[in-house]
Every structure is written in C-alpha cells, then in structure tokens.
Amino acid sequence: MERRGWGGIKLGEGKIYTLSYADDVVLMAEEEQDMRAILNKLERYLERKGLELDEEKTKVMRFRKRRERNKKVDWRWKRRKLEKVK
Questions:
Q1: What range defines the domain where residue 21 resides?
Q2: Is residue 64 a part of any domain in this protein?
Q3: Of residues 25, 32, 36, 40, the one with CA closest to residue 63
Q4: What is the pLDDT of residues 1-59, one digit of tens each?
Q5: Which of 13, 55, 71, 83 is deepest in the core (most CB within 10 A)?
Q6: Does 1 fall in a domain?
Q7: pTM of the model
C-alpha cells in the first residue's frame, strides 16, 4: 500500500497545506483522514509553542463530492465540536 502524505491540495507538481493572512490560517486537505492528521499536527505545534486555538472563531467549511453530500462528519478540537459553515 502506498503511503500518503498528510493532506494538502495539489497545485501543479506541489501541494498547498495552508493559506495564511495576519493571524488567520486556512488548513486544506483533499481527504478526511488527511485533514485529521493536519489538525493533530497543528494541535501538537500549538502546545509546543504555548499557543491556543480560539474554538469560538474556528469554522469548518467542507467541499464534498456529490456521492458524499449526505455523509455527516463531526470536526472536533480537544473534544469540542467545531462549527460547520456553508
């Protein structure tokens, strides 16, 4: 089985994992398991740096393929459910 990377969106020969502007960050992945891996890495990074994520300001926007439209996925940060937006 081929080992996959941990997320990102393909752009030419490379991948983009985040978009950043000031103190806002957008995390991107093509697959659910990749996004979960990115969130885990972010959690560890913030803990090492002594930083915290503001769950009140954090939103999840999910773009789905037609066959996955009815699939329900809960996104959590340290056991707190994150708000989903359209």
A1: 9-77
A2: yes
A3: 32
A4: 334 555 777 777 777 778 888 888 889 888 888 889 989 989 999 999 999 999 899 99
A5: 55
A6: no
A7: 0.74
